[in-house]
Amino acid sequence: MFSPQRKDFVSLTLGDQYSRGYTNGKHRRQSCWRKWKQLSRLQRSLILLLLAFLFICGILSFSSLTEQWRGLSDRSVKEDWVEMDNRGLRPIPPGLLPKPPAAVPGVIQDIPSEVLPKLHRPSVPLLPKPPAMRKPPSKRGPPTLQKRLNVTVSHLKDRGDPVVGKEADGGTEAKTVISWRGAMIEAEKGTELQPSARGKEVGTQADFDEPTPLRPESRSCGLSLNDKNHRHSCRFNACLMAVVSEKPVDRAEAVREAFRHAWKGYKAFAWGHDELKPISKTHSEWFGLGLTMIDALDTMWILGMKDEFEEARKWVQTELSFSKNVDVNLFESTIRILGGLLSTHHLTGDTMFLDKANEIGSRLMPAFKTPSKIPFSDVNIGKGTAHPPRWTTDSTVAEVTSIQLEFRELSRLTGDPQYKEAVEEVTKQVHNLEGKHDGLVPMFINTNSGKFTRRGAFTLGARADSYYEYLLKQWLQGGKKETELLEDYLQAIEGVKKNLLKQTSPSKLTFVGELSNGRLNPKMDHLVCFLPGTLALGAHNGLPDDHMDLARQLMETCYQMYAQMETGLSPEIAHFNLQYPSGRDIDVKPADRHNLLRPETVESLFYMYRFTKDEKYRDWGWLILQSFNKYTRVPSGGYTSIGNVRDPDNPVPRDKMESFFLGETLKYLFLLFSNDPELISLDKYVFNTEAHPLPIWPSTS
Ligand code: DMJ
Fold it and tell me: Which residue ranges traverse the bilayer (predicted)?
């Protein structure tokens, strides 16, 4: 309550107001001072406290503002565009769109002419090309170190770097150092964290700092984008120089040897089971359907490994049974099992594989019995029932839109339209759905409503990736007639260019970030590395030239995701540096350091080499194969995923060989090194997302 004194003060103030007219402010100032002096001590303290508080708030908001000006905080896409604008990279206003490019001779004529003018209008310019690799400064490091420039691959092998173990199969003699500490190291959990759970997404400067000193051999190579800051790229590039100058090696044969080694482990410890656990010399089961065996069938055929193929064929014929009370994931079993059986049927002409494909296809059909006809994620192939995951009625967008190549092909081969009809209904619905952002799709779709859910997050990585891949590939599979697929694909690529493309601050590496409620998160899954290959495939088939430019830029980035790691192997997820010009390009969060032997980068290298014939793509693939051999090969047979690509002394084997290592990674490496462009010609086949080639339909189909 107010004290009597305070009441006096109020009456004085009122008197002052009446005299304001002729004091011209001076009196007003005096009055303020008097008012201040007449306040109680408590009141003055409170006011001072309030002022101090406001002052501190002011300082804080000023510093965050300046951070934004410096680009240190999460910037909205709009703000990024302001920056692009400043660099002269503004999107061209619609009225000034360039004319559609003239038809490329040859393939482009296949696109219906009435569709082209509408579709061929790349409206968003690409980011500028990264600078060419610099030559090293002439004097760098002691001369003795510079002499090591002519290091050869065999020299690198002998320099004491860790080798997983001694070959037990009579193959090339390797060192017996087992670099992984301890025999069995606990597998790390996957890291598909929700954005909110991931914590800090934009790195601090320390995240992009150099953690350890340069190794001598790194200093001497001098081929990196930025010598000071990319020692791992540098080391990798030292290897690259060595690769270029090494004696001719039959690289395709080296892939065959790797396959034999992987198969040896699978045969010895996991025969007929889903996956090999090469360290513990046992197996793991996912669906209990011999996943690795089926995924590897067409790889063996393509690699010309007839004996191994015959053994596997016999198992499929006599042991493989789909009459099992087991829940399988619709997407995974479609791309691996149905896709693998169909492609093997095509390559061999053996109808046994088609019969099996038909059987698994029909057992998967209950998944489509939902209120919306958007399929459930899981099917019990024995009981004929389907259901969503326990915690939701949503399905993943990539999963429901990446089963079309296989089911359409099954209908074509069997004459039974039910497969094609079911998956094309999904395509039609997704095509018409609201909630896309410049052609980019959210990650989830509800099986009851048929609508996108959890909108606002857009990625080319997990849960959305193969949606984009299958738009293009279905269009190719069907003979370039289904123009809605092409429209959706072209619009999506424009959406990527407009919303997700960024370049790192140090070396201007182009990457595809993620959009989360309007904010760009500068992270990219290794899964996104399918994109350079898909873009190149589109460009080869008459789509705009800037798709190929983007493919080249992203291919470089995907390669750097390997080259800048200490093991020469990519992490599962990379965070890119948008802020600190003198730091590293790539940071890896502790939860993302694993490598699962994934194929996407070597897949894209294969496409890039086929279309450009640039040998550097083969050299990059060769280095990656050698890193797999060095850090993931298990002496007793098989390869293992690892937990830490940043630690060459302890890469932390996770004791699992995923089926896609044989189904995809080694197949794409072999095709990359093969000198026969007709071996699975890209004008005759489309690869499904598990690397199983399916024929492009003849025009009469
Ligand atoms: C494979 O099963 C397929 O390539 C899929 O599209 C993505 N994930 C794995 C490989 O990384």
Answer: 45-65
Q: Which of 64-78, 591-605, 636-650 has the lowest mean pLDDT?
A: 64-78
- What is the distance between the alpha carbons of residues 83 and 216, in angstroms, rounded to a whole number? 39
User: Which residue has tokens 């482990």?
Assistant: 265
663 within a domain of the structure (yes/no)? yes
Please count the structural domains in the chain: 1
Tell me which of 275, 331, 335 to substitute to probe ligand 1's pocket, judged by most ligand atoms within 8 Å of the beta carbon.
335
| Region class of 645: left (phi > 0), else alpha (psi between -120 and 50), else beta | alpha
Q: Is 332 a catalytic residue?
A: yes
Q: Is 599 in the pocket of ligand 1 (CB under 6 A)?
A: yes
Stretch (H or E) spanning 501: strand 501-503
Smallest CA separation from ligand 1 atom 6, residue: 689
CA 335 / ligand 1 centre spacing (Å) = 9
pLDDT tens digit sequence for 88-147: 222 222 222 223 333 323 233 345 444 444 555 567 888 887 766 433 333 232 222 222
Nearest atom (ligand 1) to Cα of 332: 2
pLDDT tens-digit readout, 431-459: 999 999 999 999 999 999 999 999 999 99
Q: Which domain holds residue 656?
A: 250-287+504-691
Instruction: Establish whether 188 is a catalytic residue.
Output: no
Does the beta carbon of 598 sit less than 6 angstroms from any atom of ligand 1? yes
Q: Which of 431, 479, 446 has its CA nearest to residue 374?
A: 446
Q: Report yes or no on 283 lying in a domain.
A: yes
pLDDT, one tens digit per residue, over 349-369 is 999 999 999 999 999 999 999
End-to-end CA distance of the chain: 91
CA of 690 to the centre of ligand 1 (A): 6
394, 514, 600, 619: which is the annotated catalytic residue?
A: 600
Higher model confidence: residue 185 or residue 548?
548
Q: What percent of the chain has pLDDT over 90?
A: 64
Helix or strand (DSSP H, E) at 511: strand 510-512
CATH number of residue 580's parent domain: 1.50.10.10
- The number of CA neighbours under 13 Å toward the Cβ of 203 is 24
Q: What is the pLDDT of residue 45?
A: 79
Mean pLDDT value of segment 304-325: 98
pTM: 0.74
Judge whether 257 counts as a catalytic residue.
Answer: no
Q: Is the pLDDT of residue 527 over 60?
A: yes
- Does the C-beta of 526 come closer than 6 Å to ligand 1? no
Report the largest interatomic distance among the alpha carbons of the chain, rounded to a whole angstrom: 110
Position 667 in a domain: yes
Residue 689 C-alpha from the chain's centroid: 13
Specify if 605 maps to a domain: yes
- Quote the ligand 1 centre to 330 CA distance (angstroms): 14
CA-nearest residue for atom 11, ligand 1, is: 598
Mean pLDDT of the chain: 78
**Ligand 1 centroid to 600 CA: how many Å?**
8
Residue 482 catalytic?
no
Which residue is catalytic, options 217, 227, 295, 332? 332
DSSP β-bridge partners for residue 76? 519
**Is 204 annotated to bind ligand?**
no
φ, ψ of residue 687 in degrees (nearest 5)? -85, 135
